[in-house]
Design goal:
homodimer; alpha+beta; 2 domains; seven-stranded mixed beta sheet; 11 helices; 13 strands; globular; DUF4743 (chains A, B); Nudix hydrolase 20, chloroplastic (chains A, B)
C-alpha cells in the first residue's frame, strides 16, 4: 500500500478537525451545494474520544461510528456534506496555483513547479532552464523546462536524478528509488522518468490503481477495509482499500492490479483476474511546494464469501469486512479513511446506487470526484 | 420514450455518415486522443446496405454488425474511436457558443439564447428584456432576462407560455404542452417552467433518466435493447434504452424511473424498485438556434432472466436481449443507436469493465461523457 506521496500527516491533525466547528473551503464553492457548508460529521458523537485525540483509533471506534443510532434523513440538504469534506481534503490550495510555474517538455505541460522550489535549480542550469516566451502576440509566458541538450528520455532521467540526489532528503523527503513516468497524458509517450517522492515537487501527474474488494452476503454488499500499519510512514493506522498502489514506469494497470492483489491481500491471480476497471477519480492538492496531481483508476473485485485477505508485505495491520452502508457512515462522519481512498469509496457508493439523485448536491459531488486534470 | 427534444433527424442523415470518409470534430481535440481520428466503424462492411440507405435498418442488420467476424485488437490505438464519434454526435457546434447570449434570472444564468432567435422577442418587451451591464469594472456584459415585473415563478411561466404560443410551430416546432422546470442547477429552486419543446431555444438545462435494463445469463451480461417505432417523430426506427424519459416538473428521478418502467416496458414496481442510480452523463449540442444542454441520470436494473418487456405506450416497435459485447460493437461500428442513448451505454461499458485503461484514450473518453455542464 504505497500509493501516497504526501508528507506524513499524523492522525492527530485529522482528529483535531473532528472537533472543529467549520471546515475550510479550499476550492471554489461551485463544486459544492450553494447552501452553507456544515458537515454532518461535526455532529457525530463519539463517546470515547481519547483514543482518537492521541492519533490512533481502533476497529472498535470504527464500528461504533458506523453503527451510530443517529438517524439522518437522506434527503436532508446536508446529507452529502460529510462526503464533500473528504473531497476537500484531497483538493487543498487551489487558490495557490499562481505560485507555480508550468514545467514544459517538448511543448507539452507535464507539471508545475513552485516559484520557491525553483530556487534550488540555480546551481543546475545545465539541467533546468527558465524560459520567458513573448512570442505569443505580446503576452509573456514563463515556464521551466529541461536543457535542450537533454534530448532523450534516458538523458533527462539521469540528469534529473542527479539533481534530486544532490538536493537530497532536505528538499525532497522520503526518496524511494522508484521511478514514475512523466507524461503529458495517460498513454502518451514517456518523456522521462522521475523519482516517485519528487513527483509532487515537479507537479507531474501520478497514476495509481485502487481496488474495492467486496463480498455480497444475502444480497447486501460488504467492503473489505484495511487498517494501515501504525509503523507506516504515511497515514499510519488509517483505513485503506484492500488493494491500492502507484503505477510505476513500465507496468500497465491490469498487471499492477494482479501484482498488488498478491502482495497486499494474498489474492491469487485466479481471483484477481476478475477485477474490473470501473472508473477513475482525480484530485489536485497544493501543500507548500508540493502540487499533487493524481489520477486513480478504480477497480471493483467481487470476492467469494469465504475469501480471507492476508497481507504479505507487512503494511497492513488487519482487514475487516464491513457492510457498505456502515463504511459509508464512517466516511461521512469521520476522517478515519486515508483521504484519497475515501474518494474511491465515494465513487463506489455512486456506482452501486448508495448515493442518489434525491440527495441534495448529487451532481456536484459526482463532478467533484474528478476535480484534478483527469487525463 | 420521449426523451428527445431534437429536431427530427431522419435515419437517412445518419446512414450517409456511415459511408462518409471523415467525421467532423465539433469539439476541441483535447477531448480526443491526439492521434488522427479515423473511426473504426468506417471500415465496417455491411453486405446489404440498401435497407440502411433508405433510412431504415432491421434487427437482422443489427445482429450482422454485432457479430461481425472482424477482429480488432483492443489495444489498437483506434479501438475507442467509434465511441468518440458517438460522443461527438451529441456535442456539435461548440465553436458557436459565442452566437448565444446568456439568459439570466435572479442573477443566475439558466440558459443561452441565439442572437438570431431573440429577434422574435421584439414584440414582447413586457416579457423579455435585453440588458447591457457595464457595472463590472468597465467590462460590458450582455444578456437576456425576464421583465422585472414578472416576480413569481407562476407569473414567469404564464408570460413565457404566452410568447411561445404566439411564436407557434413556425419558430418552436413540436410543442408538447409539457412543462420543464427552469433551474440554475439540479435541485435548486424552480425559477419558472417552460414548454419542453422550447427548452433548446432558451438553452435551459433539461434533465432526464435513462435506464440500462440487463440480464445476466451464465455470468454474461445481456442488455435489453429497444427499437423505436418507425412512426415516432424523433429518431424513428433507431435503437434505444429499455426505459428513458425526460424529467418533467414536479416528479423526482426515482418516481420517474418507476413510472417510465411501467409505461415503456411493462416493468412492475416490485421489480423497478431495484433500479439503481449509478452515474450521470451530460452533453451540449448546438444546432442552429437550438442549444441543448442535457443531463441524463443513468440507472441500471438487473432483470430476472425470464422477464420479457412489453411496451405499453406504442413508442417501441420491439425489444431484443443482446449480449453486451455485441451491443458494444453496434455502438462502435454504426449509428443505429439514438445518440444520447449511445452515451449512456458507453457509461455502462465503463462501469462494468468492458472499456479498460489499456484501451488508448480511456480517460479522454471517460471525461467526454460529461462535456456538458453537469449540474
Amino acid at each position: 500500500m504505497g500509493w501516497c506521496l504526501c508528507k506524513c500527516r499524523p492522525l492527530s491533525t485529522f482528529s483535531s478537525l473532528l472537533y472543529s466547528s467549520k471546515p475550510s473551503l479550499p476550492f471554489p464553492s461551485t463544486f459544492l451545494p450553494s447552501s452553507s457548508i456544515k458537515s454532518s460529521f461535526f455532529s457525530c458523537s463519539i463517546s470515547s474520544s481519547s483514543a482518537l485525540a492521541t492519533g490512533t483509533f481502533t476497529w472498535e471506534d470504527v464500528f461504533r461510528v458506523s453503527q451510530s443510532a443517529e438517524e439522518e434523513e437522506e434527503n436532508n440538504s446536508s446529507y452529502l456534506h460529510g462526503y464533500f469534506h473528504k473531497v476537500q481534503l484531497c483538493n487543498r490550495g487551489s487558490g495557490k496555483q499562481s505560485e507555480f510555474l508550468p514545467f514544459v517538455i517538448e511543448g507539452q505541460t507535464v507539471g508545475f513547479i513552485h516559484a520557491g522550489f525553483v530556487e534550488n535549480f540555480k546551481s543546475f542550469n545545465d539541467v533546468f532552464v527558465y524560459i520567458k516566451d513573448n512570442s505569443n502576440g505580446g503576452s509573456v509566458g514563463e515556464f521551466f523546462s529541461l536543457h535542450p541538450m537533454l534530448k532523450t528520455a534516458e538523458e533527462r532521467t539521469s540528469a534529473v536524478a542527479y539533481v534530486i540526489k544532490c538536493l537530497g532528503e532536505k528538499h525532497i523527503p522520503g526518496i524511494r528509488n522508484e521511478l514514475y513516468p512523466v507524461v503529458s497524458s495517460f498513454g502518451s509517450p514517456v518523456l522521462f522518468s522521475l523519482e516517485r517522492a519528487a513527483a509532487p515537487y515537479f507537479g507531474i501527474k501520478a497514476y495509481g490503481i485502487h481496488m474495492n474488494g467486496y463480498v455480497e452476503i444475502d444480497g447486501q454488499k460488504h467492503l473489505w477495509v484495511g487498517k494501515r500499519s501504525n509503523t507506516k510512514q504515511t497515514y499510519p493506522g488509517m483505513l485503506d482499500h484492500l488493494v491500492a498502489g502507484g503505477l510505476p514506469h513500465g507496468i500497465n494497470c491490469k498487471e499492477n492490479v494482479a501484482k498488488e492483489c498478491e502482495e497486499e491481500a494474498g489474492i491469487p491471480r485466479s481471483i484477481s483476474i476478475r477485477a474490473k476497471p470501473v472508473s477513475a477519480v482525480s484530485y489536485m492538492d497544493i501543500d507548500g511546494y508540493r502540487y499533487k496531481r493524481d489520477v486513480l483508476f478504480c477497480y471493483d473485485l467481487k470476492l467469494p464469501e469465504n475469501f480471507i485477505p492476508k497481507n504479505e508485505d507487512g503494511e497492513v495491520e488487519s482487514f475487516k469486512l464491513i457492510p457498505i452502508r456502515q463504511v459509508a457512515e464512517v466516511i461521512r462522519k469521520t476522517q478515519f479513511y486515508k483521504p484519497n481512498c475515501a474518494l474511491v469509496v465515494i465513487d463506489f457508493l455512486f456506482r452501486h446506487g448508495y448515493i442518489t439523485p434525491e440527495n441534495f448536491g448529487y451532481l456536484d459531488l459526482l463532478r467533484s470526484l474528478r476535480i484534478g486534470e483527469c487525463s
